[in-house]
Amino acid sequence: MRAETEGRGVFDSIYEANIETIYLTAKRYTRNHHAAEEIAQDTFLKLFRNMEHTNIEAAKPWLILTAKYAAMNWRRDTAREYLVAEFTEEEERRISESVEDPEQILIRRLKEKEFTELTGDIFAALYRKNQRWYDAITIVYVLEKPQKEVAETMGMDLESFHSMLYRAKQWIREKYKERYDKLQGE
């Protein structure tokens, strides 16, 4: 009975020292709070079941690797289910009441996701290409500030500012027109 109590104490100390790290490891790979909690608990359950065969000094690396691989497996196994799981209860209610085919809703959401990724890629490339272009495009078209005000803030006359916006938009068209057209055509 004493050995079992000591084993439980060792497990408790390992758990307390590592639960946050294991949870954060699982969350980093799953990007899902609930899955990360479950993976962390399963990882510690495996440790508890195998305490007598475990090198206590190597427990932390073992826990981290076990959680990492479990999280990667979870992501792989749920990759196709992930988009459906993104629907909120309100969206699910609207889908069930809607006359639109659920498959069409999913296709529309996938397309929206691809457009969002394209937008992110465009802004990242624009920032790398020319930070002033990035600032101008972002402030005028995303934040919807008046061009005259932005030109003054950037220390430019309005005509030069229009020219810069034109060049930035031309560059975006040259680099991303094909990808944009492909998304539009799908």
Automatic annotation (TrEMBL):
Any one Gene Ontology BP term: DNA-templated transcription initiation
An annotated Gene Ontology molecular function: sigma factor activity
Pfam families: Sigma70_r2
Domain RNA polymerase sigma-70 region: residue ranges: 14-80
Family matches, as SUPFAM superfamilies: Sigma2 domain of RNA polymerase sigma factors, Sigma3 and sigma4 domains of RNA polymerase sigma factors
Keyword Secreted set for record: no
InterPro entries: RNA_pol_sigma-70-like, RNA_pol_sigma-70_dom, RNA_pol_sigma70_r2, RNA_pol_sigma_r2, RNA_pol_sigma_r3/r4-like, WH-like_DNA-bd_sf
UniProt KW keywords: DNA-binding, Sigma factor, Transcription, Transcription regulation
Family the entry assigns: Belongs to the sigma-70 factor family. ECF subfamily.
Protein name: Sigma-70 family RNA polymerase sigma factor
